[in-house]
């Protein structure tokens, strides 16, 4: 048996297509600092799999038979202790569950036609504590959300607790800027941006930057095309 990589980011792959599981496993295991600790064909028994493999990041297909990615994500994130980060795998074309998955706490989305380099980077970014919303996924999410009748949208998220400066930062977070880019735009230290983001997460009782993006659009702070 090959010994585990020391201090490696542990990855669990959950996808109903065996070729995708095998391809992702081979790719990630070949990377420095990454180790695939398990695979599963759907979300059934996800609690046992996560407890046994103790992943840091889960690559979760959003559409699977029996137990799909959305239900599996909710189950994993409700587990006691510190849950793993979850990256949803999607083709997006007809995925009506994307916003629900973000609200459930998924740390981001990865399109199944992404390049190997994008997959590896996605795992590293999310493992490092950041969120992942590729620009084209974000655009599709926004277009889908704003096209829905108002009655089909979630009640507006209140941002009344945020200061004017925090709203400035949130606006740029929602447009996909990284902390360094926000710092340059607002002429402040990068650490100050991080502090603003942390306070916003606390005030709004949100999990991560991905949910901040959703809140910004649901509240009307940012609109598609702005």
Word description of this protein:
- The chain is 47% helix and 13% strand.
- It has 226 residues and is of the alpha/beta class.
- A six-stranded parallel β-sheet has the order 2-1-3-4-5-6, sandwiched between helices.
- It is globular, with a radius of gyration of 18 Å.
- The N and C termini lie far apart (54 Å).
Low-confidence stretches: 150-156
What is the radius of gyration computed over CA atoms, rounded to a whole number of angstroms? Answer: 18 Å
What is the percent of helical residues? 40-55%
> What number is the mean pLDDT?
81
> Per the principal axes of the C-alpha atoms, what is the gross shape?
globular
Helix and strand content put the structural class at alpha/beta
- Measured between the Cα atoms of the first and last residue, the distance is 54 Å
Give the topology string: H per helix, E per strand: EHEHEHEHEHEHHHHH
The portion of residues forming beta strands comes to: 5-15%
Strand order of the largest sheet: 2-1-3-4-5-6
Number of strands: 6
What's a quick, concise take on this entry?
With 226 residues, this protein is an alpha/beta fold. It is built from ten helices and six strands; from the N terminus they run βαβαβαβαβαβααααα.
Question: How is this fold's topology laid out?
Answer:
Layout: E1 9-14, H1 18-29, E2 34-40, H2 46-53, E3 57-61, H3 69-77, E4 85-90, H4 98-104, E5 108-111, H5 116-127, E6 132-133, H6 135-147, H7 164-174, H8 179-186, H9 190-204, H10 209-219
Parallel strand pairs: 1-2, 1-3, 3-4, 4-5, 5-6
């Amino acid at each position: 048996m090959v010994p585990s990589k020391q201090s490696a980011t542990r990855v669990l792959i959950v996808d109903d297509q065996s070729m995708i599981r095998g391809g992702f496993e081979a790719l990630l295991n070949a990377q420095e600092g990454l180790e695939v600790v398990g695979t599963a064909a759907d979300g059934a028994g996800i609690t046992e799999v996560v407890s046994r493999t103790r992943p840091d990041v889960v690559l979760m297909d959003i559409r699977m038979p029996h137990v799909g990615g959305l239900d599996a994500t909710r189950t994993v994130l409700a587990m006691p202790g510190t849950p793993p980060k979850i990256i949803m795998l999607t083709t997006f074309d007809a995925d009506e569950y994307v916003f629900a998955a973000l609200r459930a706490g998924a740390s981001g989305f990865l399109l199944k036609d992404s390049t190997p380099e994008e997959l590896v980077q996605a795992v590293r970014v999310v493992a490092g504590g950041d969120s992942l919303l590729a620009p084209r996924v974000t655009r599709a999410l926004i277009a889908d959300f704003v096209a829905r009748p108002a009655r089909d949208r979630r009640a507006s998220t209140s941002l009344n607790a945020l200061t004017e400066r925090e709203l400035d930062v949130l606006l740029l977070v929602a447009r996909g800027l990284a902390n360094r880019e926000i710092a340059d735009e607002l002429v402040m230290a990068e650490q100050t941006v991080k502090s603003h983001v942390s306070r916003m997460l606390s005030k709004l009782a949100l999990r991560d930057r991905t949910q901040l993006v959703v809140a910004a659009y649901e509240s009307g702070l940012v609109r598609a095309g702005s």
